[in-house]
Amino acid sequence: MASDEDYMAFLNKANQDLSEGSAKPQSSNKAEFKATDNGAKIPAAIQEAIKDAFYVSDADEPFVPVCLAWDEGGKGLPDEEEFAALIHHPDPSKADIEIQDPADWDTQGQYKAILDAVSKASKGNDVRVYRVAKEGARVEYWIVTTDGKGADARLVGAKALAIES
User: Fold this and answer.
1) How many CB atoms neighbour CB 43 within 10 A?
2) DSSP letters along 119-138, please?
3) Cβ neighbourhood burial of 82 (10 Å; 0-12, 13-18, 19+)
4) What is the phi/psi pair of residue 133, to 5°?
5) What are the C-alpha distances in Å from 23 to residues 7, 20, 27, 159?
6) Which residues lie below 8 Å from residue 37, measured CB to CB, with a gap of 6+?
7) Cβ-contact 42, 36 below 8 angstroms
C-alpha cells in the first residue's frame, strides 16, 4: 500500500499542466499586411470574382479583397517601396517585392476572372501584380489597379497567399 506522501505525489502529477515543460511556440514573424482600409468599399466586380476563387499552390488559399487609399493615384501605381509602405511592411526599404506583368503571372489563364474584375474596376488604368515575399516559401500575390485620381484614388484588387516549395 502507498504512503500518503506517495499518493499525494501521484495526484499532483496527474493534475499537472500538460504543457508545462514542453517547448513553447516561438513568436511568429508572420507579418500580416494591410489589405483594406477601415470602411473600404470593395468594387462589386472584385467581390464577385473572388467569392469562390482560390490561388493554387502547395496550399490552396482564397483570394481576399484589396482596397487601400492611394493619395498619389494620379501618378499611377506605386513602386516597390511605396507599395511596401502602403501595406504596412515592417521595413519598406528592404522589402522583397517584385513587380510582374499580369500576363506573365497568369500564363495559363487560370485567374482570368480575377484579372478581368480588377481591370473592370480600374476604369482604364494599368493592372499590376506585386509578388511580396514573406517568410520561408510563403509569398503573396497582389493583383491591383487604381480607381480614381488624386485624393480620392484607391488601390483596389485582390491578393492571395502562395506557398512555393
Assistant:
1) 21
2) HHHHTT--EEEEEEE-STTE
3) middle
4) -75, 135
5) 29, 9, 12, 34
6) 67, 68, 69
7) yes
Task: Encode the chain (165 residues) as per-residue pLDDT tens digits.
Answer: 678 888 777 777 777 766 555 444 433 445 689 999 988 889 999 999 999 999 999 989 999 999 999 877 567 899 999 999 999 999 999 999 999 999 999 999 999 999 999 999 987 789 999 999 998 899 999 999 998 766 678 899 999 999 987
Sign for the CA dihedral angle at 66, 149, 112, 44 comes to: positive
All three cell numbers of 16, joined, read 499537472
Element holding 41 (H helix, E strand): none
Domain ranges of the chain: 34-163
Q: Which residue has the cell 474584375?
A: 117
The CATH architecture of the domain made up of 34-163 is 3-Layer(aba) Sandwich (3.40)
Rounded distance between C-alpha atoms, residue 131 and residue 63, angstroms: 14
CA angle 48, 146, 152 (to 5 degrees): 105
